[in-house]
Amino acid sequence: MSTQTLPKQDTRPEGTDSTDDDSPKMFHYVRKNKIAESAVMGTHVVALCGEVFPVTKSAKPGSPVCPACKKIYDGLKKGD
Predict the structure, then answer these.
(1) pLDDT at position 24, please?
(2) Which of 56, 60, 51, 17 is nearest to 38 (CA)?
(3) What are the tens digits of pLDDT across the range 26-75?
(4) Could you tell me if 39 and 55 are in contact, meaning their C-beta atoms sit under 8 angstroms apart?
(5) Which DSSP category does 72 fall into?
(6) Are 80 and 72 in contact, with CB atoms under 8 Å apart?
(7) CA–CA separation, 47 vs 80, rounded Å?
(8) What are the DSSP E strand ranges found in 4-65?
(9) What residues does each domain of the chain span?
(10) Half-sphere exposure of 66 (CA within 13 A, CB side)
(11) Which has the closest alpha carbon to 39: 20, 66, 59, 25?
């Protein structure tokens, strides 16, 4: 019996929203009342674009925003 070594596989998911330094490439729009719960409890939130993730960072003014989330948000009526 012989042992074989498998070739190294790239395990990073396609289209990830994070960079190598653990800072997000862009931020998503999420229901305001779910942000604190996710940050404290570690629960996942669903962004307007459908992305599901736990809240780990807060956006600073001028941070890049997910284009799909922005398009959906801009299409909502005020008060929705």
Answers:
(1) 58
(2) 56
(3) 899 998 889 888 988 989 999 999 999 998 888 888 889 999 999 999 99
(4) yes
(5) H
(6) no
(7) 15
(8) 44-46, 52-54
(9) 32-78
(10) 18
(11) 59
